[in-house]
Amino acid sequence: MSERTTPVTADFWFDPMCPWAWMTSRWMLEVEKVRPVKVRWNVMSLSILNEDREELSEKYRTLMADGWGPVRVAVAVDRAHGQEALARYYTAIGTRIHPGGEKDFAKAVTGALADAGLPAELAGAADSQEHDEALRASHNAGIDLVGQDVGTPVIAVPGPDGDRVAFFGPVVTPAPRGEAAARLWDGTLLVAATPGFYELKRTRTEGPRFD
Question: What CDD domains does the record tag this protein with (predicted)?
């Protein structure tokens, strides 16, 4: 076990439609059980990240257009009801979209709000630009830390001088549990504390496993 006892805040940026962010978020929830860590949930948007990219396929463009709804509602939930509600909403909509296989994001939003015990009228944010300024601010806060050539998830943890160090990932499947989750977290803090460390990567050979 790690000897670290000082609580650590880990900032986590997610887009509800990203299966890899979903996997990493389930790992982070496990880390909260086995290490003195508190996750602070932040919204980023693959729709924003890709809005000026002309090389996207028509299928992916359609996905990005549909992706505005879930993140807009996430921001609305956070602004109206706070972090705990945002975490409940993310768990609810992620469960519907990923293990549940729901392809209709509007239906997923409506169901997730009900599952999370949140007001149904929040679903109206999906088709409104009311929270777009806050959404872009949250998105940019994560991207400014990690750089433009990544997607979601993004996590930020304390570095050696106390400033946040952000990484894309970790990308992992299935989500580690118990001591395996703790070891991966310890390793994340280790590389974050190494000046000049930027990247570890290998080719993915399997898709997300929602065990």
Answer: DsbA_family
Sheet with 164-168, side-by-side order of all strands: 37-43, 8-14, 154-158, 164-168
Residue 204 neighbours by CB under 8 Å, 6+ apart: 171
Q: What is the pLDDT of residue 65?
A: 92
Ranges of the chain whose pLDDT falls below 70: 1-5
pTM: 0.91
**Reduced to 3 states, what is the DSSP secondary structure of residue 117?**
coil
* Residue found by looking up tokens 């009801």 in the block: 81
Q: What is the pLDDT of residue 123?
A: 98
Strands 37-43 and 8-14: parallel
In whole angstroms, give the CA distance from residue 35 to residue 194: 20
As a whole number of angstroms, the distance between CA 207 and CA 151 comes to 16
Q: Do the beta carbons of residue 25 and residue 12 sit within 8 Å?
A: yes
- Residues 6+ away with beta carbon under 8 Å from 187: none
pLDDT in tens, 141-160: 999 999 887 888 999 998 88
Per-residue CA distances from 100 to 14, 59, 92, 128 (Å) = 18, 21, 10, 26
